[in-house]
Every structure is written in structure tokens, then in C-alpha cells.
Amino acid sequence: RNPVNLADYRAPAYQVEHVALDFELAPEATIVKARLQLRRNAPGPLKLDGRKLELLSVSLNGEPLGDNRYTLDEDSLTIQDVPDQAVLETSVRINPAANSELSGLYTSGSGLFTQCEPEGFRKVTFFPDRPDVMARYRVRMRADAAKFPILLSNGNKLSSGVENGIAHAEWEDPHPKPSYLFALVAADLVSLKDEFTTRSGRKVDLGIWVERGDEARCAHAMGALKRSMKWDEDIFGLEYDLDIFNIAAVSDFNAGAMENKGLNIFNTAYVLADANSATDMDFQNVERVIAHEYFHNWTGDRVTCRDWFQLSLKEGLTVFRDQEYMSDQFSAAVKRIADVRLLRATQFRDDAGPLAHPVRPASYLEINNFYTTTIYEKGAEVVRMYRTIIGREAFRRGMEAYIAKNDNAAATVEDFWAAMQSITDIDLKQFMLWYEQAGTPEITFDESWDDAAQTFTLTLRQRTAPTPGQPEKQPLLIPVAIGLLNQTGEEIHAETLLLRETEQSFTFKLPQKPGAVSLFRHFSAPVKLKGQSRARLAFLAAHDSDLFNRWDALQQYASAVLLDSVATHQIGQPFTLDEGLKDAIAATLRDATRDPAFAAEALILPMESLLADDMTVVDPDAIHLVREAARKALGQALSAEFHAVYEQFANAAPDDVSGPAMGARALRNAALSYLTAAEGPAFAAAQFTAAGNMTEKLAALTNLVDEPGPARESALHAFYTEWEHNRLVLDKWFSVQARSNASDTLTRVQALASHAAMDLRNPNRVRALIGAFTANPWKFHDKSGAGYKLLADFVLRLDETNPQIAARFVTALGLWRRFDTKRQGLMKAELERILAREQLSRNTYELASKALA
Ligand code: HT7
Ligand code: ZN
After folding, report:
1. Tell me: the pLDDT tens digits for 432-459?
2. Which of 38, 80, 337, 506 has the fewest Cβ atoms within 10 Å of its own Cβ atom?
3. How is domain 1-188 classified at the CATH fold level?
4. Whose CA is nearest to atom 3 of ligand 1?
């Protein structure tokens, strides 16, 4: 198990200028013939990656090669003495039906699909499967026309037809691309078609390919695709560059979607949506993922990554672009709140544990383990900071420079940095540390007012705690957006400061002493700000004109008082509701009409996992009991206000998925959660029966499942009976039970693990049960250790069939050091049990061993 190191990067010995692929497709035995036109690029033998391929023949410049001319091992085919220009032809047999890893060519339902990022192409044919080898592709396919009438690949279609019951098609992609962007689909699908005309007049045929019967649920995805195409032209001047853009949906998929050139392949969960079966959140996820994959056409496909260490170059940048797109479609403040919520709940956690790694890692055992929130979400924050530091206009020019300079090439994060530096006088040298240093910086501050000089001085300090392999940290370049408010909350000054030192002071000449400072407005850097007083937080929660900080101040205030209550609970004292929290929630309800979506966010108390992050020794039981007690006490104390909001926002049409309608439903459902806590399940039961769409239905069910009894059983039964034939909705049925607070959740999850509808080959179903269960801290951390055992059992079962998915679940045990000694022992024992398994995958081995280190 040797790590791959960034420092060992070497250019490939050969470039592939052109590749012709010929597929005789059949589920159990597919023959792949490849013809590679090679050109020498650097010294060394020709090394082709290949895994689980049965080599049938190999020839060089038309001459068959005997097995004395090459070396073949489990992972590669190496040929010495290849001329500087050569044509290599190989023929291999593969078995897609036996491919349960869902990377390479695999079967899903009755179709054949590929997933090649990051290293799946090597399971299709022998090839230098690395992103800095960019080739032009021509693809021919043949398959049984009865089972596989639709044959798709990248680029433009040259021909297709049926002869003697055999379907055939030929595709050509004019753009050079790395092998990870190759895609093929052979299936019995139908399509929703549309078209888009680019701003320079290119007519693009759009197709979304799904199973028969699902066409009616593709309209939202198609709308999102067209909106994304237009937005990228308007905002970044980036236009689509082929005549066809296809999306194919597949039920069995390891991730959300894949940006293959001209043929995106999507998890059905991010394509199919109608109000009956999909929640508002699902609609937004479809919009976001469609946009994300479309935006990769330029940030990923046209400009790709030199090696996988640069993964955030495309992923961080593309997440940033999809965040901006979503922010333009809906409310910018609410979008920022949702993004920061996610960052804190996932990336900040990872950054504080044994799996912490920089945005550009220096080493990995298994690249599939590095599709993390650090690469994606922190990577997006890093891109956002460039913009905050140099300004919007300069950033846009920097993007143009980056794309112009690296078009059709494989780039590094230095190339992105250089493009940004090329258009600004601000010295960005220090900024590269954001890519190299792991960990979340902590910021503390001091303020002073000089009455005589009428100056206000703000002193900021930064510190990043040690992370694995990085004991010492250097100070980062941190943009700090601030607002100075007067005593009544009006803004008297706003500016973005650049913090470069470990400690640095900034002085402002002001007409009056400020009442409060609002720091890190719109979350201008991914840091933890410490040391704000409760009085300050309450003031900002009521007055800050930066909506993000107004929300954040309330969250920080609520965290502080709930953590106090946890401490009180631990010494056996009863819960009492903090008056300040009650007042802030009451104010939010009073103000709700102004921005219902914002109010809905502000009403959600800090998540249990977030409260846990601020405890030295996490006490999942106390955290849960206190948070529930607060919800109940608030529901009781503000009963009339919650009832009023619940009634007032009842009028959104069930199939209206506009921002205001979604905001109204979100607010109403937030109120429902307090009302259920305070008054029992009657409201939820009524909403369940009356629900006009899935958002209302699922919110009602979520409240109902917390209480064992007939109301819960009949709702779960009705939901199952209505939706048992819709896989995506059935996933919700699994999740809602795994997230439940009910006393019997553990035994129910155990039973669901062997339910007839549980399907280990389907990652969505596994995530619906096990992913949701690990996101239920109170139940997962049950002090018996049964939750840990259940997880480890799943990891070991899944590791045999789908190591990518298995390994992801190991991270749930990664924070074992944060718990009491009993839980520590139980979690550690499960990690050790996983590691003791012989023939553990590299994926699971890497994460389990790092978690224990
Ligand atoms: N770039 C894509 C990543 C992806 C992926 C990674 C590992 C295994 C399966 C996968 N499917 C897709 C998706 C994206 O970020 O756009
Ligand atoms: Zn992506």
C-alpha cells in the first residue's frame, strides 16, 4: 500500500493524440478494442493502466506483440522500446454485470453505464489513465437492439441505426479530453428533448434520458439546464461548445452526477422531480447539481486538472460557480446561510479530526477518498476569498485570463493563482497557504476607543491548530469584511480588511464610538470567530444589516445558551429557557413576513453535531435532551406566535416551486416542528393527511416518527404503500426512520437493514439508511455501542462489493477521541475490527488506519 505523492509528479512518457474505441456490448462479456495514436512526451517506457481486463491481443504499429514484449500485472501493461510515434491496438474482454464497484463500465437495471472519474477508464481498456493525457475520441458501439436501443457517448453523433437486430452508433468528440471524462450509455431509455441557442447562434440539442415513465419528471431539470447555460454566458461569458448536450439518469451511482463531456451521467435523485414526489429541497438539489455539472464544461472539461492533487481546481471552482448561480436564482443570504451551515457541519468537523487534509493534499493512498468537503466546499471558499480580496470586476477578468491561458490543457492551482495575481496589484503570494495548510483558523479580537483622537482600533489574531503531519502553521492571508454599527445599529463604516499577520491592528477615525463591530460579514473567510459577548451577539442578531451575520449572531447566541444548559443538565439541574433566546425567536416570528425563507433558517436551533463540536468531551445524550427541551419550551412560550405563522403561510400552491412559495413552506414547517414539540403530534398528523405535495408530507412524517404509537405506524404504512414502487421516495421512507428520535430507532434501523427493499448494490438506498443514521448523533452514539457495531457491520459487508461507498462511512467513527472513555473504547474497537479484516480495500484501509493513527 504505497502512497501517491504530489512531489513525485512526472509528465507522462507518451501523449495519446487520438483514440478509437470499438465496443461489442453485452452485460456479461463486452469486447473493447482500442487504437491509440501515441506521441512521445518525456523519457520512459509506455505504461498503460488497466484493471480487471482480460487481455485478448496487443499490437504495435500493426505487429502483434508476443508476451515477451510487454509486462502485464494487476494494474498495468508496460511496453519498452516504443517508437516516438506509434499506433497501439489492444483488445480486451470485460464483465460489466460483475462490476459492483460502479466504476468503469457497469450494469444498472437493464442498461450499461460508465463512471470513469477518477480512475474508472482503466477498467474499460488499457490506457494512460491520468488527467494530463488528453486525447480526441471516436467511439463505435454495437449491442442487441431489443435491450440497448439507445447508444450514447461524448461529443457529436456521426451515425446510428439497427441492422439484423443489432443497434449501432458512432460518436466523435472534437475536443481533447482526459480519460476520466469518457462516457458511454447503452440502454432502453426515452428522452425529454429541448434546444438552446447560444449567444453566438449555435443551436444545441438538449436531451434528458430516463427510464420510460419518468419523462414527465424531467421538466425541472431541463429548465435548470437552460437557465445554467444562459447564466454562464451572462456572468462569465462562457458558451457551450458542442451541438449536443445529453444527460442520462441512472439509479445505481456512487455520487451525485458526472460531468462527462457532452454526456453528463446523473444519479436519478438529481434529475427526477415533481411536486408530488420531490421536496423543495430535492428541487433545489436538482437545480444545483444540473448547474454544477454544466459549469464543469469549462471549469473541468475545457480546463482540466494536471493530476488528482489539483482536484479542487475544478471542484472548488465549480462549487463556487454553482453557489453563485443558486444565489442568483433565490435569496443570496439564505443561500449563503445554507452553504455555511454545510461547511461548518462537515468541513470544519473533518478539519478538526484525524482525516484533516489541505485543499491540495500532498499524498494519498486512494484518490476516491479525497472527494471531500475540504476539496469541494472549502475549495469553493478559497475561490470566493480571491473575489473578496481583489474585487468582483478583477475576479471576472482573472477568470477570463485563467481560461484563455489554460484552455484545452491540464492545469494546477498555481495556474489559477497566477491568473488572479496577473490582474491585481495586491500581493497574493501568501494566499497559496490556503491550499497547503489544513485546519480551520481561529480568530480572536480586541477593540479599543481613543476618545481624544476619535479613533477606534481593532486588533485581530489568528491561530490554526496542528493537524496530522502539520504541527506548525503559518499565518494566512484572510479577508475580513467588517461593518461598524452605531449604538442604534446603523452602519457607520464598512470595509474589507486584509489580515496577514498572526496579530494585526487596524485603526479607524470615526465620528463616534461604535456600538458594535460586525466581523466576517457574509462569512468572508472560512474561520471560527471566538470571543463575541452574548450582549454583542444579541445586538447583532437584532440589528446587523448584513443578513448573514444577523442569522449567525443568533446561532452563536443560541449555541452559547444551549451549551450552558448542557452543563447545567450534567450537574442534575432542570432546564430553564433563556429569556434572550426567547426574545430573539419571538422577534424572528414577528418579522417573518419580510423574508419567510430567512426566518425559517433563523428558527432552526443549532444542530446537535454543531453543539458537540464546541464541547471538550461530547455528551450526545445531554445535547439532545437540552435541544429538545429548548424546542419544547419555545413552542410553549411562543405558542400563539407559532400558531399564527403556521396559519398565515398556508397558502402557497402545492406545485409552486418559486422562491417565495418554498420560503413559505419552509417557515411553516419550522413552526410545525416547535408546535409538535410543545403540543404533540396532532398538527403533524393533520398535515400528513392534508398534504398537497411531498414537502408538506415529508415534514409531517418527520415529526410523526419521533413518537412510537399508532399515529406513527399508520403514517409510515400509508407512505410505504403509496410509494413502494418509486425508489427515490422509498429512500425517504428509510431515511426518515433512521433520523427518528424515537426510543426504538436502533432496533428499527437494524430491522430495516434486512428489509426486502434494502439493496446493497444501490448507493442511494444504503445512504438513505446508514448515511441518515450516522447523521442522527443521539442514536448513532447510543452508549451501548450498538450504533457503532451496526455501522461497522455495514462497512465490512459493503467493502466486498463497493469499497468507495464503504470507506465513506468509516469517517463517522473518525472523531472517537472527542467522546467519553467508554464511547472512545467502543468506537475504537469497531475501527480495529474493520482494520483486522483480511483483504480490506485500499479505500477503507486508508480511512480506518488514519482514523486510528
Ligand atoms: N466530478 C464528479 C465526481 C464524481 C465521482 C467521484 C468518485 C466516484 C464517483 C463519482 N461520480 C462523480 C462529480 C462532480 O463533482 O461534479
Ligand atoms: Zn464537480
Report:
1. 999 999 999 999 999 999 999 999 999 9
2. 80
3. Immunoglobulin-like (2.60.40)
4. 258
